[in-house]
């Protein structure tokens, strides 16, 4: 029995010794909370982002932070801001204010001073007016001198009341397509949305450069925006160059009804400034 107690005491001291020598496992602990994750476009979204500094870490060790929003298609926003809460780049529709709190009692609870540091709180307000409707994943990232730390937040959804795009027929030509080795202005597109179900719409984009032919066939997944000036479609499909096949999970088709222009933003190809030569019920 006495031997068991000695071994137990030794193991306890050994574990505590490791904690004292090694210190806390994470120098910065991140938190990300969305106060209302389901809003209509044009409304505000409020984020609470916080950084907990553990013992031995300084605010000066933080290089910058990023609030990342990954939305439908390639509509992604990376808001980069300083440790002082000053916007550096990419913060579409966002305002940031910083509060520094004195904190205690974070950490391990063994009385060795871990967590007797400070906590930084960033209040981020997002105006969704310029954002596409759809679902967005969220993530907070922190870059320090030694490492990058990240924290995944909950998804948010931006809704929008849109008019129907059913019965839309569209044809376009020219524009500038860039994909892999192809850079072409010899492009054509056909898009048709049936009367009863916009999500059953489909289209084909073809491009020819010399002997290389690019064909992208896609289906409409959702209509993200539609008004008198523009429409934005979320589409999915695959492309072929010769015998090679490429799959594009989500792409965005932008229709400029005023300027009669069409643009496609996909993961690895882009079509810009295509002329719309025919458009009905769109």
The biggest sheet amounts to: 8 strands, antiparallel, barrel
Q: CATH superfamily of the largest domain, please?
A: Immunoglobulins
Average residue-wise pLDDT: 84
Distance between the termini: 85 Å
SSE string, helices as H and strands as E: HEEEEEEEEEEEEEEEEEEEEE
What is the spatial order of strands in the main beta sheet?
Answer: 12-15-16-17-18-19-20-21
* Structural class by sheet pairing and helices: mainly beta
Oligomer: single chain
The CATH architecture of the largest domain would be: Sandwich
Strand fraction equals: over 45%
Number of self-contained structural domains = 2
* Structure annotation, total helices: 1
Rg, please?
A: 26 Å
Query: What are the low-pLDDT stretches, counting only 5+ consecutive residues below 50?
Result: 13-26, 104-116
At the third CATH level, what is the topology name of the largest domain? Immunoglobulin-like
- Find the count of extended strands (DSSP E, 2+ residues): 21
The CATH top-level class label of the largest domain: Mainly Beta
- Looking at the structure, what is the overall shape? elongated
């Amino acid at each position: 029995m006495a031997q068991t107690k000695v071994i137990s005491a030794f193991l306890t001291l050994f574990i505590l010794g490791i904690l004292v020598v090694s210190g806390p496992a994470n120098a910065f602990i991140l938190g990300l909370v969305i106060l209302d994750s389901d809003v209509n476009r044009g409304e505000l979204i409020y984020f609470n982002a916080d950084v907990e500094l553990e013992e031995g870490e300084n605010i000066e060790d933080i290089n910058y932070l990023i609030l990342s929003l990954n939305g439908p298609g390639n509509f992604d926003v990376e808001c980069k801001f300083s440790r002082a809460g000053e916007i550096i780049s990419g913060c579409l529709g966002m305002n940031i204010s910083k509060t520094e709190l004195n904190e205690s009692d974070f950490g391990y609870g063994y009385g060795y001073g871990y967590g007797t540091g400070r906590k930084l709180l960033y209040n981020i307000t997002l105006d969704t007016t310029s954002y596409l409707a759809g679902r967005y994943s969220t993530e907070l990232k922190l870059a320090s001198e030694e490492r990058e730390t990240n924290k995944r937040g909950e998804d948010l959804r931006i809704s929008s009341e849109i008019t129907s795009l059913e019965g839309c027929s569209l044809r376009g030509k020219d524009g500038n397509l860039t994909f892999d080795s192809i850079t072409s202005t010899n492009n054509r597109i056909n898009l048709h949305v049936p009367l009863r179900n916009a999500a059953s719409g489909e289209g084909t984009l073809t491009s020819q450069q010399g002997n290389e032919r690019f064909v992208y066939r896609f289906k409409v997944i959702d209509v993200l925006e539609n008004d008198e000036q523009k429409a934005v479609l979320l589409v999915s499909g695959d492309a072929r160059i010769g015998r090679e096949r490429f799959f594009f999970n989500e792409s965005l088709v932008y229709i400029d009804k005023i300027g009669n222009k069409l643009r496609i933003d996909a993961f690895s190809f882009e079509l810009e400034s295509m002329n719309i030569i025919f458009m009905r019920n769109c």
